Amino acid sequence: MPDTSFSTTPFDWLSDLDPVFAAQESWMNGSYNNQVMFHLAYKPEGPFSIACGAGLLAEHVRRFRFSFDIISHLGHITDARGRSVFQESYLNHLQRLRLRVQVNVAPEGMLLLPGEPLMIVQGPLGQIQLMQSAFNRLVWESSHWATMAAYSRWKAGRWKEEDTPAAPAYPFNPGGWKIRASYIGGASADEILNNVGKSMREPFKGEGLVRIEQAPGEPLVQIRRLFKSNKPLGDVWLTQAHEEVASVSRTKAVFKDSVTGKPREVQMTRFQNIYQPVLVKGHPVLAPPRLGYLRQRMLKQTEAFHHENLKTYPHGWYM
Question: Is the pLDDT of residue 32 over 60?
Fold first, then answer.
């Protein structure tokens, strides 16, 4: 992957045309408007991951449009025989496109366990395919850099800082997003500078945008994190059907613990729904975040979990 760390040029989303080709294919075969669900999966090399990039995604949707210049550029891309690779009817479709994708994402700085997706995406297949590069670049890669920075602090046992350092300036490109994510993950100024020259690792098998086959009542759409005061007690995985019937007023929850395979009852004082809307019918609903707050959220999360054995931390499907 080329190093764009020090470039101040905004990222060229047309540098990767594979998602556009995939979206054109679904347009041609008529599946582009099928309602589908995807998870954005990240497999941490340590015991947890740190969600990051939701603010970037909201800002991207506010900025990006299939303008005349972009459509014209796509229309001039040709194959070896000099023929346009994108059909005129599809380019006309892009010009008229109105985004209708629902994106729920873990808040930036949130600690997630292995197997818990960074993001849940629902909407028309063709639109989700068009957004694949943005999901990977803005959320998946940001989460990787934030996780690496947070894990470094985790191993050193550094949960607190007296004064939160000022957020660094960053350009709206992969190098800048790396700086932003490293800061949210708790990296020091020196560590952020060291990260600038590092290359992004290749995704592991099963990472990235993964389509979820929607058998009735099966896909995970929400995770409820249970607490006693500030102590995390367990993560309850909910399908759409579960979320509609799971009472928000109860002080206990029963779920099948994925670690032991047995039912587990947990008494709680409060819970938190992990996945929050970033895009509702294609419209960004997340206010621009304060990066210092997101950094402190990460530190509070890792401090709350550092007494837990994350390999045996209870999590599983609601019963």
Answer: yes
Q: Is the pLDDT of residue 240 over 80?
A: yes
- pTM over 0.85, yes/no: yes
Residue 194 predicted with pLDDT over 70: yes
DSSP letters spanning 295-314: HHHHHHHHHHHTTS-TTT--
- Residue 71: is its pLDDT beyond 80? yes
* DSSP state string for 6-61: T--SPP-GGG--HHHHHHHHHHHHT-TT-EEEEEEE---SSS-EE---HHHHHHHH
Residue of higher predicted confidence among 162 and 298: 298
> Sheet holding 263-267: strands in order across?
263-267, 252-257, 315-318, 231-238, 222-228, 270-273
> Which helix (H) or strand (E) is 169 found in, with range?
none
Q: Could you give phi then psi for residue 313, rounded to 5 degrees?
A: -60, 130
**Secondary structure letter of residue 138 according to DSSP:** I
The whole-angstrom distance between residue 255's C-alpha and the CA centroid of its chain comes to 25
C-alpha count within 13 angstroms, C-beta hemisphere, residue 277: 10
